Amino acid sequence: MNKGGEVGAIIVAAGSGQRMGKANKIFAPLGGNPLLAWPMDTCQRCSLIKQIVLVLNDEDLELGQKLKEERGWAKVTLCPGGARRQDSVKEGLHKLKACHWVMIHDGARPFLTLDLIENGLKTAMETGAAVAAVPVTDTIKFANSNGVIRETLQRDKLWAAQTPQIFTFDIIARAYKELTTEVTDDAAAVERLGYEVKLYLGAYNNIKVTTPEDLALAEIIAQNML
Q1: How far apart are CA 204 and CA 186, in angstroms?
Q2: Domain 7-130+163-225 in CATH 3.30.565.10
Q3: What are 142-151's pLDDT values in tens digits?
């Protein structure tokens, strides 16, 4: 299915997890396993992915290496991250070897599935760039710096971006090489170059664990999946 070349994955998990308290959220217990193990195990068993770069902060590299050995992550190369998410992605890109497709996923999103990966690759074949996303269900207000509403946005055209985000290596490498400002996701870097980025349907349970409340919700989801 991945015609045109090999697929490499970058799992970005180099954040400090400050909003979770002292412990790094990616190693928090979830359904009997470390949170990070959920997306990593999915990537490891995905036959389409041939190499995985796990980007961690310096303090977590030893624990990451221990997990790699314990869980048999044979495809995995560990990599120290940077100060910002985009710096960590750039470091991860430097570690990939001869791949055509790059899948980038947040390590704090535990509920990555094989379907999300496969559907993303199919969509990316259309334009070279694809992003998992879900339609927004809340009403979104645009406000000024004083909190005064200026506009109610048309909800049927709004999507909440997730990961995985999948690109050809050439597109994402160029996007990060030429990036001169801060972005919050990989698609934003690609959009700045004028490339067409295609959305595909993600999943509402594909949550990003940022706060203790997120972790509590993730535990409920995990128990339903076991």
Answers
A1: 20
A2: no
A3: 999 999 999 9
